Structure formats: C-alpha cells, structure tokens
User: Fold this.
Amino acid sequence: MESYKFDLDQIEAYLQNTMDEEERKLFEEYMGDSPEFAEEVSLHSHFLAALEAQFNEELKQKLREATEEKTPFQVIKMKQRLVFSLAASLSILIMASYFLLYNVKSSEEVFMAYYEPYMNVASPNARGGQQGINKAFQLYDQKDFEAAADAFKEALKQAPGDDSMRFYMAVSLISIGEASEATSILEDMSQDEEGLYFEPSQWYLGMAYLQKGLSEEAKIQFEVIVKEESSYSEKAKAILNEL
Assistant:
C-alpha cells in the first residue's frame, strides 16, 4: 500500500460516499495500514461537521435578526443574500483551515528530515580484541546497518548487558526501517537516567515512534526531552513545531 497516494479531494469523496467501489476499498485498506492517515480522516470528518453546525447556527441567528419588521418579499430577498454571504464566508474558512490543518508535516516526513545515525563513539578497538564485537562496529561505521544489526545481535549473546551494543543495534534497526524492534530496546534504555546512552536513547526513541507513524507518542517523547533540557532539546522543539 505504500504506493497509494491520497489528497483532500479523495478524503471528501470518501466521507461523502462518492467513491467507486474499487477506490473505496483501496482507501480503507490504506487507513487500516496507516493509523496516522485514519486519524486525519477522522479529524477531517469532525472538522467538517463542526463547520456545518456553526454555519447552520449563524444562518439561523442572522435570519432571526434580519426578518424583524420586514415584509415577506424583503425577508425572501434577505434570506437569499444571507445564505450566499455565509456560504462564501464558510468556503473561505474551509480553505484557510485546510491550509493550517494539512500544512502540518507527516511523521514520516519529519523523520526523514531529522534522522541520522548516531556517531560511533564506543571505541570498539578498546574491547580486548573481541572479534565479533569489533566486526559489528566496523559494519556500523561502513553504514551496512542490516549486517551491523545482525552482528550486534550475535555479539550480545556474549555480553547481553552491554549498553553500547544494545544502543547501536537499536540505531542500526531504525536505519533499516525496523523501528518496532528498536523501540523495545530504547524504551528500556531511556528509563536509565544514569546510563551512558540515556539522552541519545530518548532522542532515538522519538525517532523510532516517528518512523512507526506514532505521532502522538513521538510528541510526548519530544516534550519530555524539551522539559529535561537535554542536549537534544532544540531539535526536539523544532520537531514539535512541525508535527
């Protein structure tokens, strides 16, 4: 479903039941695969319902005010003018709201703009010549992240509590699109305030959430980073402004 693209016209067509059967099926499959998109469709539906309710209430109020002490013919003419005027205003409001609402970047776009693998600062050569561990870090430096993730996983069998290998394995997994597996590692490491990788684990956990399309979880994570005034606070603020 990654090749399926949507726009506001399609969202409206779906909500107004004007899609053909095949297009509706694709649309609903995409919503099932993308919680973030499903949330946007729901938001759009509630947004339009709220606008319609506001329009109807304003129209009633204007008509009440306008029809006082008017002849029936004047009332009819005034009703027509009011409907056209409010409809035009509503159209402008919808277009402006669309811009504000959908100018927000998707979590995937934000991830692509801000993600970069963490620099290797673990000094693997100082690890007593352990070949498997050194090999994992060499692969990481070569940006062969898929092989690096496998090598870290294998090396962790020798030292399951090694935070350096756990962290770099998580970053390797994110780098190959495997954020789900990385998330469980980073959620654990980001709770260890005394850990060497506490702050970067918090940052990359937010990145993992973005890659998974979990924008609300990502927002919460970046808000935590901002609140704690870590070295990633400025970047976190920038991301929050885009989500």
Notes: The chain has a mean pLDDT of 79.
